[in-house]
Amino acid sequence: MRVRVEDVTFSYNSVKALEDVTIDIESGRMTCLLGPNGAGKTTLLRLIASYIKPERGVVYIDGKDLRTYNPRELAKLISIADPHLPRTLPMRVIDFVLTARYPFQGAFQYLEGDSDLKVVEEVSRETLISHLLYRRLDQLSSGELQRVIVATALAKRPRVLLLDEPSAFLDIRYRFDILKVIKRYTLTRNTVSIIALHDLYLASLYCDTVILLNRGRIVSCGSPREVFTSQVIEKVYGVKVRVFPVNGDMILAFPLPPEEDVLTAARTG
Amino acid sequence: MSRKFLFSGGRRFPLLFLLLTVALVASLFFSLSVGASLIPPEEILNCLLTSKCGKSTELILSIRLVRTCVAALSGAMLALAGTLVQGITRNPLADPYVIGVLSTSLATVSAVILISPSILVHRQVMIAIAFVGALLGYILTTTISLLSGGTGTSLVLSGIAVSALFSGVSHVLLYLSQDRIAQLGKHYVFLLLGSTAGVLRQDVTYLAISLAISLIIIFVLGIPKALNAYLFGELHASQLGYRVRTLTVITALVSSILAGATVAVVGVVGFIGLAGPHIARISAGTSDHRVTVVLSMLTGSILTVLADSSTRIVSAFTSWGELPLGVVTGMIGAPFLAYLVVRGSRG
């Protein structure tokens, strides 16, 4: 399984969101999209999910043009999750997670089959939400909700997993847990996993490949060690970064406050 | 675990379905037996099952049977329309009345009545006109709502605006044509507030056909599941392979058929479209449309049949004559809804 984005351009009402983006993404690796707000991370995910169509350029999945897939095929293949979930009408967690199984059910099948329920049971164990299944969605904390959203994305058993900010709103412990879950899924099922993240530290810790976007263009692409150089990060974010090498190839990246005197100002109050 | 529940929203479904069906049958019997003269239930059974019953009882019963069936069907249809509308707007405050569909439907009907009052007798034409009116109302409301941002709040607000305008228009039109309506033996207020008085045997058929068509569309196209997916956002529905635009258009169309048909036959009956779905949803503990689509029809039916019976009880024991149905539905349904809302919010 591989995803190729070729010369893709997309704009919202003549504002360019992505320009001539070309990337190749292999399966079995955590690929992270980084970049400041408005860099085009969400747009890129939605293009790969075929939710929006590129103005120019083509997205290929396994060498096949995305436009030649039928919607049902795609629905089984690709999962995309957004951290914002409308919750105006009361639904329970299990109702939400089970919607992910709809593409696998027959056109006239009204109820879930045992296989669907088994998948949900597995997924909720993997994502640590078994105890939440019968709670109402609007009564979850935002951290619990994010785990439920990731669980639903995984409940499709997708071959291409697209996650937008899965660690948003989570506390430190669950950030590690959720990325570990995603990484394990990626490795064991050999999926193409593309994850938009804001947290440089988490990205340096869990990503195999980092794609750094800025204003709709790819600035840098490679391993965390290659991408997180202080010059590149400073150019894109306007923030300095300190990189610590840890055992072997791994690094940890910590952004620093924009100016040294912020720290002193905070100290003096 | 996998065998512990029937399906996602359905743990309580079989029991609820049974209870509500029993309640519906009970309220149907109640409705058949009360009125200017009381008919005991065993006599009703006798009359319906065997043909051994008095001429006068048979006559009263046949009239009441038509009214009761119309009440049951229109209640089911309004509640079903409410469930669908709340689904596509993702808004628990929406109902066919709030999004303007009932008022525009009545306005088109009143306009046609003003031009040619004899249309009241041609129910198929009335239903078609009311349906077109409902559809136009939906298009108008969603257009205004999209122009003002397309949020749930803007939809309800534009629906209220459309409702207010077209209720006004229909009041004026019906007021102008009240003499001609009176010549046909009807009071125009009954169209504004709904009534089953004076419904005809063929009305039952028309309502049943409209409901059957709607149900076929709903179940063949798998709308309950699609609405479940749509509740979690357009991105979610679309990644599950649903065409969001088609879904909303078809669901709106079905709601308009349902709302339009009831307006043509009983006039505007408020509250059922809002309360029916809510009672179903709160008692099931979920908004899973596979459950609420079925249960809301039962709750809407029960509410409307009880409301209709009470208009007859009032007219039997007082000298006020018959109250409009739409006035009573609210008085009967609101306390029950309030109770469920309070209980439901406590989890």
Q: Would you write up a description of this structure?
A:
The complex is a heterodimer of chains A (269) and B (347). Chain A has 269 residues and is α/β, with parallel strands linked by helices. Chain A has ten helices and twelve strands. Chain A has a six-stranded mixed β-sheet with strand order 6-7-8-3-9-10, sandwiched between helices. In chain A, a hairpin with a 2-residue loop joins strand 4 and strand 5. In chain A, helix 3 packs parallel to helix 5 (142-155). The model of chain A has no long low-confidence stretch (mean pLDDT 90). Chain B has a single domain, classed as ABC transporter involved in vitamin B12 uptake, BtuC, CATH 1.10.3470.10. In chain B, 76% of the residues lie in helices and 0% in strands. The two termini of chain B are 22 Å apart. Chains A and B meet through helix 2, strand 6, helix 3 and helix 4 of A and helix 10 and helix 11 of B.
Q: Could you provide a short overview of the structure?
A:
The complex is a heterodimer of chains A (269) and B (347). With 269 residues, chain A is an alpha/beta fold. Chain A is built from 10 helices and 12 strands.
* Average pLDDT, all residues of chain A: 90
Helix-strand makeup class of chain B: mainly alpha
* CATH architecture descriptor text of chain B: Orthogonal Bundle
Write down the CATH topology of chain B: ABC transporter involved in vitamin B12 uptake, BtuC
Distance between the termini of chain A: 54 Å
Helix content of chain B: over 70%
What share of residues of chain A is helical? 25-40%
Biggest sheet character of chain A? 6 strands, mixed
